[in-house]
């Protein structure tokens, strides 16, 4: 499954609520906080575009965060301290201007995740202290300053993750006069493959943070159905799974939600109801994937359906009027065609003043389908044990960010092409009949997801079964 979100923002990088079919609350990994205030730091590598070319730059960010926050109140990080080590090979641009010292500002685009909506927020104006440009060796710049407070809208982890860095350097000559040009804008992109999470602050209604009594032990959260599992603070459905170990990150947060929906069969002028299933979602750290002239973040996720230990929806008994008059009833099973749904959230925002909100969610997935226990006008029809689609069915669904968000759920709609059938019939080939009466494009699908439940903390639990929309 791939999810793309595009956002248009104005001024101070306003972003709308974001979401996708399997993105869920607080899934980006971060260190667990200590009691009281916590000191956070991150050492990262950036690729910075100097006038003479791209150079690798080392960046260290340190600051103080509260370890807990209260829902509805501002969360105020402490002063941020930044150290930027510019390699000697990148100093030609400064020395070529006759610069003896350099000052300026440093700014970050920081992703703040509450629930499932990662929102980019600018940390601008961190003042760079004047530093002498060395004749040999690296240039070490230090910057510091306050960063904006964050309004906490819901309980759960609030995750601060560093993104793009922008250096606005102001070189000065030995006599203090400005060089020509008098400023260098140096955009820096975070190198991929790094964990750039700076801090995690847990929010609760009373600001107490997640006490031990409110946080289940990881050993109580088993994969697959677990009828004997219990959780004092929340009711976790048995089909909620922990997927962190499956993706190689045992500390990654997994969320689960109920999902249901309808799919039309265009040729039969009928619709089939998908029974409730559980969808489990796990996220990994985002990375900067900005094309030239834009700011873009990519956030990969993995997801898996679970219905009684099977990756799919429960069997559905459906009745259609074949050829418009003959009642045909069959049991239909829709299953996930791959071990995981692969999800990528692409978050764009533009620095301009245009109005409107273009935020959208797009989701695609592949599913298999099997048909059995068929009856035509009340007479059993032996379709065999392997009657189903000859190849996986690709489904593309979308919604606006106002219609759908992963933590609160909502509808996602689109169309699917039903592939030809294969393996149908015992003693006679029924594939052409199924293909002619069912297969083809233009089949409207509308899935509805309920709210997300974070099993590790109990936030959002128990998940609510949504009413399927048509």
Automatic annotation (TrEMBL):
Q: Which residues form the DUF6801 domain?
A: 46-199
Q: Where is this region: Disordered?
A: 202-232
**Which keywords appear in this protein's UniProt record, sorted alphabetically?**
Signal
Q: Where is the signal peptide?
A: 1-34
Q: Pfam family of this protein, just one?
A: DUF6801
Name under which the protein is recorded: DUF6801 domain-containing protein
